[in-house]
Amino acid sequence: MDTFTDLRHELHRHPELSGAESQTANRIAVFLRRLDPDQLIEGLGGRGLACVFAGTSPGPTVLLRCELDALPIAELGEHAHRSTTAGVGHQCGHDGHMAILAAVAQQLSAKRPARGRVVLLYQPAEETGEGAAAVIADPRFTELRPDYCFALHNVPGYPLGEVLLREGPFSCASRGMSITLTGNTAHAAQPETGTSPAQAMCRIIASLGELPAHIAEPEQITFATVVGAQLGAKAFGTAPGQAQIWVTLRSEDNDAMARLIAHAEALVRLNAQADGLQHAIDYQDIFPATINAPEASAMVRAAAASMSLREMAQPFRWSEDFGHFTASCPGALFGIGAGVAMPDLHNPDYDFPDALIPIASGLFLRIVGEALG
Ligand SMILES: [Zn+2]
Ligand SMILES: [Zn+2]
Asked: Please, which pLDDT band fits residue 1 given cuts at 50, 70 and 90?
């Protein structure tokens, strides 16, 4: 086993949840410091790290991003590097992404870019959709602002090392919508003296599944998934006075997301008003769509010339907070196949394939070559 496989296994053994990645960040900082980077900024947007390798002459700044966080998933697996933290695991493969950038760092340390600079960003809190925005909002990020940004995600179900690319929308915008309907409780023997949200709740749940056609083109991904709901309580003497509905809104571009939000909010308002209910709406886990720029996509294509490359017909339905970066500078997020016969991401038995580390780090270095000339 090599250094980077060892590093991934160590990270995998000690996963940490979004926003609490202090040990992970320390391990990475110890590793990177040995490579003598030109700058190492810690605590960026929370637990984030930025490691800078600069060329001798001026030129563009290229940012490569990976993620520090793991998931609240109990790992199933018997391998020697399984998680030692109960209920927490690296089932999105972010341990692998970190090892890939560590391998890139070692190459850049041995051979700095001729011009410009490379920023290797270890971003916190990707899974909650908070980390990218927090890094960008950190005043110390101003000085690191890239001209191009790139990130990859391992994708099981595709051949190992196959590059998955799409110009334009690559992964969907999504957001969690919490709806509260408030009426008045009543004695269950006299429900007519109260205001129950039960009927409005049922209509809203049913309607959210049947969105009007004008929100998106027929072939475009735009939909809402009701993920949970609660009405009253198990109290047989009381008719309910409150209901909650939790919905995930999803769309392949930010304009369609804006229309979806407006539609969903109007639906809630009209149904609440019709039954004399108060309503409140709030949002969390907000991810913009990740939109790949043509010039950045072209760089990935050129860097992957000797590899198998699949141009994706449709964006991925999942969301990635890298969309905050592609919204502020030309960039591309691409997938890299993790093997056909692999468990899916976020499954309890998922484990990043180590064979991807040299494949992906080589690709990233060639992308840097394309961007910095
Ligand atoms: Zn994930
Ligand atoms: Zn992920």
From this structure: low
